[in-house]
Amino acid sequence: MAAAKRIDQLVNIARLYYEHNYTQQMIAEKTGLSRPYISKLLDEARESGIVEIRINDPNGTESKLERNLKEKFGLKKAIATPLTGAPEVSLFSKLSVALSRYLNTIISDGDIIGVSWGTTLYTCSMRLRVVEQMPNIKVVQMCGAVSMADRDIYASEIPKKFAEAFGGTPYLLPLPAVVDNIEAKNAIVKDKSISSILKLAQRANVAICSVGVFDHDRTLCRAGYVSHQQVDELLAKGAVGDMCSRIITADGRVCDPELNSRTIGIELNDLKAKEHSILVSGGLEKVECIKAALTGGYANVLITDENVGYELLS
After folding, report:
1. How far is residue 301 CA from its own chain's centroid?
2. What is the pLDDT of residues 50-79, one digit of tens each?
């Protein structure tokens, strides 16, 4: 009940401000609340999605930061969303809005969308806002993931949620990210159903990925796909991040060919052939691995935050 009352309050305050053109001071006087508290409620209404501000820009105007990012990394599109000191959940929200808007400009019925896994993409899939249903859309999982329930990275939920938003069909890859040896991998990928999913992922004209920092505390490591000693060895070789379950160095190279050969999913070089290879990732702790992915040429579209954008150019 308390949550419902809070939502009613946010909606009422937002209507007064955005629909009836009340100033914050006028709302404060009308409601008996302080003006700073009204400002806080309006911020909360935006962050929670009750209020969505949309600017229609027929010319697709870019900021100077976005133009510079495009030029430096050879991108077809760069989106750097502003941050105002909000918490991490706000970052995910802003990346989700930016991805939704971009997808609504490029997706056509019949497209094949490939997705990776992780918290960023899961949040985007949950908050995806599609303006048109496209029943012939296919959404395919591009790489194996983590199967342990206590370390869920939403691998199966992400394609389901993206497909649900568009009204299309999801295709799942219910496999581990890494197997013990190349013989096991070869046997798995020869399976007819698995092979068809991987071929569909290779055919995808749109790929949506995030990138994660590689260290002892990250998903691939905690899930036991690489041992503590192997993590140390990979870090010594220059590992900085993982993308589509594959470990990369600062210059965008695959860090360990042997580990890479045991990894299930499309190859990173497959991303280079996509019409739209979209990297969605933000937060200053990810600057190095985002730069690595861009240096490797694995994305031609970047969706991030302004803070990361400026660091990438510095």
Report:
1. 12
2. 887 766 565 556 889 999 999 999 999 999
Residue 57: the pLDDT is 60
DSSP 8-class letter at 285: G
d(CA 79, CA 225): 33
2-47: what fold? Arc Repressor Mutant, subunit A (1.10.10)
Q: How many CB atoms lie within 10 A of CB 37?
A: 14
Report pTM.
Answer: 0.81
Identical fold for domains 2-47 and 64-313, yes or no, is: no
Contact 162, 129 (CB under 8 A): no
Radius of gyration over every alpha carbon of the chain, rounded to an integer in angstroms: 21
β-pairing, 246-249 with 206-209?
unpaired
Give the 3-state secondary structure of residue 139. strand
The 10 Å Cβ neighbour count of residue 183 is 10
Fold of 64-313: Rossmann fold (3.40.50)
| CB-CB neighbours of 51 under 10 Å | 18
Domain boundaries, the chain: 2-47, 64-313
